[in-house]
Amino acid sequence: MLKKLFNRKQSDTPAIDSNAIPKHVAIIMDGNGRWAKRRGMPRSMGHRAGADVLKQIVIVADDIGIRALTVYGFSTENWKRPEQEVSLLMALIKEYLNNNVKYMHEHNVRIRFIGYIGALSEELQQIIRDAELLTQNNTGLTLQLAINYGGRDEIVRTIRDITSSVKAGTITTEDITEDYVSSQLFTKEFSDVDLLIRPSSDFRISNFLLWQLAYAEFWFTDLHWPDFTKETLLEAVAAYQKRERRFGGLRDEE
Q: Where is substrate bound in this sequence (predicted)?
């Protein structure tokens, strides 16, 4: 099925400018459960279909020159879901990594994780460490998987770390600039997000990358994540390239 989705005719593919590719793209992979429900399937089938799509989108993103792709895998709020679904999601994360890390490594993709990993099972923590270690020297796209991540939680943890540094005398309050705060976040290796993509008809950021989205362009689609294709990604990038990013400034004609 996925091969058919990613092998459409060239005429169906939106044209993009290879010289204006967003460096950092973030995706809220929403709609897995609704996709499954509409088809009379258990939610688990939707999550598995979504995991298959991610594998394909990572390679497409790398091919067109995106340098960092940050995806929302499991939020700090997802612990509120039924215990059975949380267990399923954790099992799917392990399954995805066990099945795909080698594939990503062979495609020169680097894998990183953001979020408070310490709350996860020791088994999953070890799988995460192994994935990061195996791919750490790869030079292609960096896939950042947000697991047990929340934007507010990230900011609170960063404030605590900065406060501790001030108390220890390693920095002063005058050292605390926007650039310094950015350098202490989970995403410190990368620039702010250029483009946020959210499928499944919701128009909110759901506590995702609150600091990093300050000047991001947002792109929404009614498609559920399992229906997301190569063409959908290219459509989002093409829309991004038509926008004028002013970062608080004026349009040229103003």
A: 31-35, 43, 47, 75-77, 79, 81, 198, 204-206
Choosing among 3.40.1180.10, 3.40.190.10, 3.30.40.230, 1.10.10.10, the CATH entry for 21-150+192-241 is 3.40.1180.10
SS3 92: helix
User: 91 and 43 in contact (C-beta within 8 Å)?
Assistant: no
144 and 113 in contact (C-beta within 8 Å)?
yes
pLDDT at 249 over 70: no
CA distance 39 to 17: 37
Give first-to-last CA distance, the chain, whole Å: 49
pLDDT digits (tens, 9 = 90+) for 178-191: 999 999 999 999 98
Query: H-type helices in 119-213, by residue range?
Result: 122-135, 151-168, 178-184
- Global confidence as pTM: 0.90
DSSP label at 172?
Answer: -
Which residues are catalytically annotated? 30, 78
Q: What is the mean pLDDT of residues 34-53?
A: 93
